[in-house]
Design goal:
The structure holds 2 protein chains of 2 kinds. By secondary structure, chain A is an alpha+beta fold. Chain A is 36% helix and 29% strand. Chain A has a 5-stranded antiparallel beta sheet, covered by helices on one side. Chain B is α/β, with parallel strands linked by helices. Chain B has one domain: STAS domain (Transcription Regulator spoIIAA), CATH 3.30.750.24. In chain B, 37% of the residues are buried. Classes of the chains: A alpha+beta, B alpha/beta.
Amino acid sequence: MSTFNEEYSVPINSAADIVVARQRGRALAIQLGFNGSDPTMIAAAISEVARNIINHAKHGEIVLSGVHDSRRQGIQVIARDDGPGIANVEQAMQYGFSSNKGMGVGLPGAKWLMDEFDIQSQVGKGTRVSMRKWLS
Amino acid sequence: MHVPILKQGGYLIATIQSVLSDADLLQLRDDLAGRVGQFRSRGVIIDVTVLDVIDSFATRTLRGVAHMLKLRGAETVIVGIQPDVAFAMVQLGLTLEGVGTALDLEEGLAFLNAKAKRGGVVAGTRSAAAPLSSPRTLHGAQPKRGSSRR
């Protein structure tokens, strides 16, 4: 399916881009066959990781694409930035922990909304969050 | 996208018209804070029916608006949170603790009217039974704010 080969990159440079990213994500999710409350879950997760870029790195991008393995299909969301990075990822993933102005809900919340969640961060280099949700 | 704020008797009604950016939400907060003083409003309804997602920032801002308006003497009720949006909020662990919520505009008005009654406000003042058809009459018949408040 052609949908699965396409990749959409949404640059995140201002808070307004968060809305663009989650709308694109919702549209792609529906295109890929997600229905019910799933497109909203995916859009909410994108909103949180995009906000994380704005709050901590100022600039970055969200890359949206379809994914599949041997058994199933789904959506992949990658959020990456070249920001300051996260010194203690474990702490950042704790619900309620916030280094600055947030509620400390964003990253752990996004993890709950998706099926797979991976975060890699290097201080001084940046952060990369990769999330997937599979079509059940 | 600017959020229009309508005055309805003693209440203000802010109906969000499209998906809001962070800046729009903050603008709405500032606008409402100003209008509550300008119109001496006792209640504020924020209709979020069109919002596609209420994320942690939006939740925090809405909660902030409600608490700020409370300090200004106005009760806030958030109406129209869609089922999927509510479900995502639950998954994110987000709550609107301490903020009134209602199904829709009609329920929101009923919520504020009930609050006003419990607060001992006499019927016929700005906050009780505001008729949708004749806000002007009500406005003209308003007693001074201080007289009807404890």
